[in-house]
Amino acid sequence: MTITAISSRASRRLPLLRTISFVAALFSLTVAMPAAAQDQSAPPDAISSPGPQQTPAPAALPPQPAKPATARPDAVRVVWSQFLDIPVSGDADSTLRHGGKVDVYIDIAGSTFGIDDSITFHLHPEFKYGESANGTIGLIPSNTQLFYPGEGDAFDLNVNVTKKWKSGATLTVGKVNVLDLAAFLPVVGGGGHEGFQNLSMALPPTAIVPGSITGALLQVPTKKALYRLWVFDPVSSSRRSGLEDPFSQGVAFLSSVTLPVKIGGKRGYYALKLAGSTRRSIADDALPPVLIPAPGSGFAERRGEFSAVLAMYQNLVEYAEHPGKGWGVFGQVYLSRGDPTFLDRSAFIGVAGNPRARPDDRFGIAWFRYSLTDRLVRVLANRVALEDEEGLEAFYTVQVAQPVRLTASVQVIDSAVAVRNTGVIAGLRLTTRF
User: Fold this and answer.
1) Which CATH architecture has domain 16-433?
2) How far apart are CA 365 and CA 140, in angstroms?
3) Could you report the per-residue pLDDT of 290-328, keeping only the tens digit for each?
4) Distances, alpha carbon 162 to alpha carbons 40, 69, 171, 223, in Å
5) Share of the chain above pLDDT 70, in %
6) Residue pair 80/3 in contact by the 8 Å Cβ criterion
7) Residue 246, Cβ neighbours under 10 Å: how many?
8) d(Cα 212, Cα 339) in Å, to the nearest integer?
9) Dihedral of the CA atoms 52, 155, 177, 136 (nearest 10)?
10) What is the distance between the alpha carbons of residues 411 and 403, in angstroms, rounded to a whole number?
11) Contact 330, 313 (CB under 8 A)
């Protein structure tokens, strides 16, 4: 995963037309569809599973048994989120910004090409446009969807193929957007179209696993645990095919085991994840220039990276009258051996779920803290004074209609840039699914 660039405090003003169009769309949806806001007929996974393949993220829910092959060989889904955000406190200018992200998920069954339907082809084109408050206060992106797949208006295409066996085991090969997998995390959710917007929770950064990877992803469910093994190129595949110069900087892996546990009759999932690579360089594709040490600085000259994560997702309340709904706690602790990895430790903890009175709505609040590797901080001391980044995010999502959801969020961030004052970002997100 990655950290955003330190942007200038001066930014372009939001074009009036963009603001008017967003507010008009929001007003029309709110007025035209009030009755649909109470629609509670959607299945539990209808909102939290936008990805192109039914493959949970690391430390997520074990997969369900394989379903019979559908008679329809193709499936197309579209997710479109529009964002308004504005810094309301701190050093950053109080500039209202508008941006959007469109993701198209296309699944093509193997029978379309005359082969077995246990093989599925996935295409995921994505387009990002507009502006965001990323980088105005903290180093970690405050809006995950408007950070990937690159700065400014950006397009990317992910293509991969999945083989699924009768046991439920799957093997995916190709280019994969890790945000798609983060959307399946239990309790916390993720991916930025739903749930938290700050990268700290939406796609927890490790500085080893980039947001877009090219490689092979194996998943093996058993009765007692879910096992994963990823082998991939440590260089980000964002806005690249991933085949230009594969594994030129080494090879990376992620392995995990997830244990389902019931406490007081409530479902929980506890995971251990290990990640590493043979890279002998800092992940400069994930950092702004100001955080990349000069050659000969003594940093990123050691080969090999390694990190460990302990994660938990525990339901505390489950609504019998609304299967699959409730609320719970989640948290994670991350440690790495440091150099050449630019993050050495992090942690977050929070609460998220659905209110009983409106089970299709969603809420969450979480605290996070991320630490740049001490040796990197010392190397950069003469260029920029750095410290740990700490923050809090809270959000509430209203289901306006079954395919339309409106989220209000606020983030309080104590930046890793020591000279910056603690800042506050307020935002709105309008998400529509087709």
Assistant:
1) Beta Barrel (2.40)
2) 17
3) 889 988 888 988 899 999 999 999 999 999 999 999 999
4) 32, 14, 6, 22
5) 83
6) no
7) 15
8) 22
9) -130
10) 26
11) yes
- Please, are residues 171 and 162 in contact by the beta-carbon 8 Å criterion? yes
CB neighbour class for 284 (10 Å; exposed up to 12, middle 13-18, buried from 19): middle
- Give the residue-averaged pLDDT of 354-375: 96
Q: Which of 147, 271, 272 is nearest to 212 (CA)?
A: 147
Q: What is the pLDDT of residues 3-44, one digit of tens each?
A: 544 444 334 444 444 444 444 444 444 333 333 333 333 333
Rg (CA), the chain: 21
Cα angle 179, 182, 184 (rounded to 5 degrees) comes to 130
HSE-CB of 230 using CA atoms within 13 angstroms: 28
pTM metric for this prediction: 0.83
Determine the Cα–Cα distance for residues 153 and 141; give it in Å rounded to an integer: 16
Count the neighbouring beta carbons within 10 Å of the beta carbon of residue 378.
Answer: 13
402, amino acid identity: Q
